[in-house]
Design brief:
The protein is mostly helical. 66% of the residues lie in helices and 2% in strands. It has a two-stranded parallel sheet with strand order 1-2. It has a two-stranded antiparallel sheet with strand order 3-4. α1 links the parallel β1 and β2.
Length: 751
């Protein structure tokens, strides 16, 4: 008998018939073919008993053979190789596949494989590994309109086998990395050919891998095909379904000439810039494509606008990032836009409500804000857009924090975390936003550590990413407050200075930053510097405006103007709490309907302080009792802690603090303040550090005595008096005589 001959039939070929000599004679041949390959003469040879069928299992090493060869390691070898001899003996198993196995897969198994099957095999490898890579799609996207479903991989059955649902599964788990490393270079080579690239793109698309399909068309130079898929998969909303990394990759694949003349790509690139915090670049992109009129809101939103509804909807969203103050007229025109979108266009309708949401938050119209937030949420859920629903939940958290309602804010923060967990992609900046909101919720409840940790570790990434005006306002407030309380005044001011640099082009944010800096200085007992900072802020609201009081003070509406008025009022209360009529000014501000509940709590503490200083303990007790009750009901202590300069003296007063302490709920919240380190017996501590002579000198200068008078009365030299005054300034954290007197009064050291 002659030596057997090995006949390897390539896949997807039509073989000749088996020669008669191998059917009726003594010659033997070993035929390697796929199960679906029809070989003429095979059935007759089997019927005559001249042939036998050896399945894949018969070609594998048995468990007994593996035990004999590998001993205790046989189970690990069996799992990684499936008993395939080539893998067992040539793959190196414990050190990775050698070049011989790579070459075998490339030339023998993959070279003749059709493009569609190659893609399906590659995707099956990822699916077997449990990856979600690329499989997300717009809910209304239909892959069927582009291509029919590709055939299942027909690789050798010892590599790929169908599961119960007919989907391809890897028969040998340990060979996955080997196959992936072999397939990827083959796909890369084929993508250089336009015909193969089209087939590969359509195969990706039929499996729902939109990003890979677009990139394949782009590699082949078929940009019209890529653009059509991009538009069908959401266009400028593509980001919210496929994630920032995929969004950036797809946009980078379109040539510049196409990008600057195609509206959907211009809008997408402008959105990309907004997400990176680069508002100036977004404006420039619109001007380059549409002209200067693109930034003229009266033209864009006029009844005779030349722009598409998609452009106008995007321009409305962009107003959020520009911190543009909506007039009532512009808001009315904006509401006319929503009638142009079909009822089932949930993305556009949800985005409209998302846009006006910022307007209502900025104007402190929280009832309207919560209403449009709920409407936006309904549309985004209908659009199956968890990332957009996440943004709405964050806004709802923010609204509740502004209202001082920490309990409801916590529920919204939990919901936003759930939406974020639904995303099939990573979004680092959105994850930072979630961490920030959760940290702010904890801060309201008395735990400052999460916020301090965020400011130390994440602030750079946050500052260079997407910023909404209401979110920036919040970050400035909480960040500067936490740093000033738990680190130093210098740390808080440095934090604000960094934001001043980040937002150099935005005047609105500059004013906001300056107002927060004044608050930091006030909290550090540097009141004269705070007054100078407030004076330097331009605008109609100044010291004289606040002192004039009346209806104008009670009707201040714009966000920064109101914050500036409150800062000036706080300054006046510290400087001269016994000023006649000051209690009426505070009452007027409390009655302003544009105040947030959080701001109103602070103003109520000021009113209680003024009442106490004007010897009206009854009113001080009543006002403070109401404020404490609100804080208990809403689960927040932060507004109390932020006004401890005034609150401390109230609590230390026996007629006020002693009365409030008779109520269990009040004792509980005051205990939480002390346990968090935000309220303590500071006056006792500082009073104990002052010597008897220092205390006497402090009392005398508070009564108007000059250094010379103090020296004559106490029998000291003026130099000695100045020395003791220097010690007083240092212990009180002040820089001047006036500041020392004010701090001593605030701490109750002067009665």
């Amino acid at each position: 008998m002659k030596a057997p001959i090995l006949w390897d039939i390539p896949p997807y070929t039509t073989p000749l018939a088996i020669p008669e000599a191998y059917i009726s004679g003594t010659h033997r041949v070993i035929i390697a073919k796929r199960p679906d390959t029809v070989l003429p003469g095979q059935a007759r040879a089997l019927a005559y008993g001249q042939a036998t069928f050896i399945g894949s299992d018969g070609l594998m090493l048995s468990q007994h053979e593996l035990e004999r060869l590998f001993g205790d390691a046989c189970e690990d070898v069996a799992e990684k190789s499936g008993g395939w001899p080539l893998a067992v003996f040539n793959a190196g198993l414990f050190e990775g596949p050698p070049a011989v196995l790579q070459a075998f897969l490339d030339t023998e198994l993959l070279a003749a494989m059709p493009d569609e099957e190659l893609v399906a095999t590659r995707l099956a490898l990822d699916e077997t590994a449990g990856r979600k890579h690329g499989a997300t799609r717009h809910p209304s996207f239909s892959a069927a309109r582009y291509a029919t479903a590709p055939p299942l991989p027909q690789m050798a059955p010892f590599l790929m086998r169908p599961d119960a649902d007919g989907r391809p599964r890897l028969a040998v788990p340990g060979i996955r990395d080997v196959l992936r490393e072999a397939i990827d270079p083959v796909l890369e080579r084929r993508l250089r050919n336009a015909g193969s690239a089209r087939a590969i793109a359509e195969a990706y698309l039929a499996n729902g891998f939109v990003v890979e399909a677009i990139c394949a068309f782009q590699r082949a130079g078929l940009f019209d095909n890529a653009l059509r898929i991009f538009q069908d998969a959401g266009g400028s909303f593509f980001l919210y379904y496929f994630g920032p990394e995929a969004f950036d990759t797809v946009l980078a694949g379109f040539p510049l000439t196409l990008s600057i003349r195609t509206e959907v790509l211009v809008l997408a690139k402008a959105l990309q810039s907004l997400k990176l915090g680069d508002i100036a670049r977004a404006r420039r992109l619109l001007i380059d494509r549409f002209g200067e009129v693109a930034n003229d809101y009266t033209q864009v939103f006029s009844s005779r606008s030349i722009f598409s509804r998609q452009f106008r909807a995007f321009r409305l969203v962009m107003l959020l990032y520009e911190d543009y103050f909506f007039s009532e007229e512009l808001l009315e025109r904006a509401y006319a836009l929503i009638t142009e979108f079909p009822v089932d266009d949930h993305l556009s309708r949800g985005s409209f409500y998302n846009s006006v949401l910022e307007f209502y938050i900025r104007n402190r119209q929280f009832a309207a804000a919560e209403e449009v937030a709920q409407r936006a949420m309904v549309h985004y859920r209908a659009a199956q857009a968890p990332l957009l629903a996440f943004y709405i939940s964050l806004h709802q958290t923010l609204i509740r924090l502004m209202m001082g309602d920490a309990l409801t804010a916590r529920r919204h923060a939990t919901q936003s975390a759930a939406f974020l967990a639904e995303l099939p992609f990573e979004s680092a900046n959105d994850a930072r936003l979630q961490v920030l909101m959760e940290a702010c919720v904890e801060y309201e409840a008395g735990r400052a550590e999460p916020l301090a940790r965020f400011l130390n570790l994440e602030i750079d990434g946050f500052a260079h990413g997407e910023i909404w005006p209401s979110l920036l306002e919040f970050a400035l407030h909480y960040g500067s407050q936490a740093l000033g309380e738990h680190f130093s005044t210098m740390a808080a001011r440095s934090f604000l200075d960094r934001w001043r640099v980040y937002q150099t082009s935005n005047g609105q944010f500059q004013a906001m930053i300056s107002i927060r800096e004044a608050a930091v200085l006030q909290n550090a007992n540097r009141w004269q510097e705070a007054a100078n900072a407030l004076t330097a802020i331009p605008g109609r609201v100044d010291r004289a405006f606040v002192l004039a009081g009346g209806e104008p003070l009670g009707r201040v509406q714009e966000r920064d103007a109101l914050a500036l008025a409150l800062s000036w009022l706080r300054q006046l209360i510290y400087e001269a709490p016994q000023r006649p009529g000051l209690d009426r000014l505070v009452t007027t501000v409390i009655g302003n309907m544009n105040l947030t509940d959080r701001q109103r709590m602070s103003a109520e503490i000021w009113l209680a302080y003024v009442s106490k200083r004007q010897r009206n303990a009854t009113q001080a007790r009543a006002v403070l009792q109401k404020t404490l009750g609100d804080c208990v009901r809403l689960g927040t202590i932060a507004p109390l802690a932020e006004e401890r300069i005034f609150l401390q003296e109230l609590i230390d007063n026996q007629r006020i603090g002693g009365f409030l302490s008779t109520i269990a709920a009040n004792r509980q919240i005051l205990r939480k303040l002390r346990d968090s380190g935000r309220l303590d017996n500071q006056s006792v501590k500082i009073g104990n550090t002052l010597s008897r002579r220092e205390s006497k000198i402090l009392l005398m200068i508070s009564e108007g005595a000059a250094n010379k008078d103090v020296a004559n009365t106490l029998g000291l030299s003026e130099a000695t008096v100045k020395f003791h005054l220097g010690n007083v300034y240092r212990k009180l954290g002040c820089r001047s005589r006036q500041e020392a007197i004010g701090s001593a009064r605030a701490l109750g050291l002067l009665g």
